[in-house]
User: Fold these one by one.
Assistant:
Number 1:
Amino acid sequence: MATAYGLVALIIDDHPFQRSYLKRILLKLSALEIYEAENGVEALSILKTAPKVDIIISDLDMPEMDGIEFMRHLASGYQSPSVIISSATESSLIASVEKMALEYGVKLLGIIDKPVDLKKLCLLFDKHHEKKAPRSALNNTFFDLKSILAAVDNDEFEPHFQPKVELATGRVVGCEALARWRHPEHGIVAPYAFIPLLETSKQIDELTIKMIKKSAEACKQWHEEGLIISVSVNLSLVSLTDTTIVDRITSMVKDVGLEPRYVTFEITETAAMTEVASSLEILTRLRMRGFGLSVDDYGTGYSSLKQLTRVPFSELKIDQGFVSGCSHNNTSGSIVESSVQMASKLNLCSVAEGVEALEEWDFLKAIKCDLAQGYLIARPMSNNNFTDFCKAAIKP
Ligand code: C2E
Ligand code: CA
Ligand code: CA
């Protein structure tokens, strides 16, 4: 369930309970950013300053400025988000609200009863995505190396965090930091549009350093709020040619005030099997300094046990290609199970990534896999939303 993935939402309701109820639902559906307003006046002032809002969920009957008047103002503004009306109003009124929205040119996705039903809300989000389909194709835009490097300099990249949950207890114990480009025109851009180019041109170091710094800072902030969570950052092996990088990373993390044991570096299995001595030296030194080391995409690289033990890994991340369908596909199921057993024998924490279905969760729990990560739990989300997600998860 992640139909609000990447969306910026605005909730308008005069009842704090209704707002927090909707906010919790949107977080579960992985909204990127959520704004809240008590009435239409407040909502309009948020729209003036907030980045592009994709969806508004608004009550109808509110003091100061009600939902009807709000829609009239919205139609004349420069933002044109989709609107969902959530209302306890009887159905006779609803037809006229729909007609009015149409006349104003407001993109009304639909009207739902309070309390909001999750399934109905998801259907309306699907309608939003259908309408937006041509725009999301922008995420396929080709970016050249020069503009990517300029964006790195301009600090347009930020980590989004996807929770890692302990299968035995359901607790959030860690997360993976995934790079997102907050592009001034195209919105949030996914890694495939910039990582490969940075890697092949061997110019990924600056992004790596910035990702580590921002992730460590976020992690320190969670600890200060009582959320003791670790963070994993992806490390490209082309970053590992410069042997001074270990000192740079270590002092950066320590300067933030975070112990290295709360930071793990993920290296893909294929990259980790390198024979390059300097890379092995760097990985070993990172582990010596107390950082965690994880074999990412395990199962795709045909590594032997001997090769795996050459680097002092602390975690094994089983590739989503095997996890997906592991509960009903015998081959994937066996691969996942033997990987978990091997991890346990080597004293490595086992992580299944790409967990999308409850049956997969049950299977992984039964074979005693340690951690799970995937859309079933949550999509990657902004730091604010991730923090709220963790706080909501620890509430009794
Ligand atoms: P990865 O390290 O294997 O990260 C996991 C990817 O799977 C992420 O894609 C995540 O959003 C996605 N994912 C998580 N759960 C599920 C699920 O249940 N189902 C499916 N289908 N996918 C799921 P994302 O964020 O697009 O990242 C893609 C890749 O880009 C990453 O793969 C990683 O290799 C690379 N990457 C991302 N950030 C960085 C970075 O800061 N540095 C480097 N070097 N690479 C990065
Ligand atoms: Ca990874
Ligand atoms: Ca992976």
Number 2:
Amino acid sequence: MSILITGGTGYIGSHCAVELLKNNFEVVLLDNLSNSTEAVCKHLYKICGKKPNFYRGNINNEEVLDYIFKCFDIKAVIHCAGLKAVGESVLKPIEYHENNVEGTKSLLSVMQKHDVYKLIFSSSASVYGNPEYHPIDEMHPLNPLNPYASSKVKIEEILKKLSIENSKWKILSLRYFNPIGAHDSYLLGDDPTGQPNNLFPFIMKVAMGEREELEIFGNDYNTPDGTGIRDYIHIMDLVDGHISSMLYLEKMEASLNYENINLGAGRGYSVLEVLDSFETVNNLKIPYRFTERREGDVDNSYANISKAKVKLDWMPKRTIEDMCTSAWSFQKKKILV
Ligand code: NAD
Ligand code: UD1
């Protein structure tokens, strides 16, 4: 039996693949390589001694999907494929809708055709918008502030509706907070091919000397040191959350077909705190300067992870220091490999 991972050569998909391969699942990766490279498959082989089945293709292409479902006995899908740059989504809202929402519809239609009803969807904390309270639980109102976040809300709505209409579906929407860090081999990590958007890829560029300084977007937020607070979670803790989710899908009550679950570490760090931790554990100096706030950024965002702890029997284990060490170790190794 196989697990299909869409967006399988991307940051989160590839880290899920490594754990599934290690746990003797057959893994099929589908990715259009818009933000990753096929080299990931080589690294997966180095780490696990097993090759994933890789297909370069688009989730919007039902023929490709149909072919994969015909070739493999797919048991469940981890659906990570998607465009994720918030700023770009404001400039290209239709592209984000087409790729993320319409692409998901194609996937669902082909899954249904092949009687595959188990799905884990990569959602995002961005669905909550500006938090009304902390920590943010799954009951928090949804208030998407940009087309990227709207695409996640629309997909969640489609998934929920589908699960009501057909009780065969078993679907989890995992609302990720801020995954960072790398696999212990340091052969896999966050390695976007395009322009980076998130904090850590920018810190890496400064650490590598490719940029002179980090721009910290705003120091007048309503937080103790004025910089934005986020809930950073080690990528391997996030992956453990997916493995627990796969087990949970197997034993989900018959009456329950759909759930939203937060995956974060359950505590927040400011940009300055993260930077301090990164400099200390890696013995590096990261020059920075404060700039204007980035449009759409919120002061503070951290998760209530009680639901994940109870339902998935899962706990994040790694510290912010682990995250900072592993992110830099991956970056250093990347130069050598
Ligand atoms: P990523 O860009 O590294 O991986 C996504 C992969 O999907 C890429 O390899 C890309 O080439 C592929 N892709 C995009 N559109 C596709 C399409 N139409 N068909 C096939 N492949 C396609 O991003 P990631 O960080 O691994 O994120 C995975 C998922 O998790 C995304 O849906 C993202 O929105 C969501 N998410 C990520 C974060 C984060 O901070 N990384 C936070 C919340 C949610
Ligand atoms: C962003 C998205 C979120 C998406 C996630 C994954 C926004 C508003 N949110 O989350 O919807 O799910 O990425 O793609 O874009 N920062 C700097 N300098 C930088 C980069 C970031 O100071 O060069 C700060 C930000 O202002 C923020 C923190 O670092 O306070 C984290 O930023 P980032 O890594 O982009 O994540 P989010 O904004 O939380």
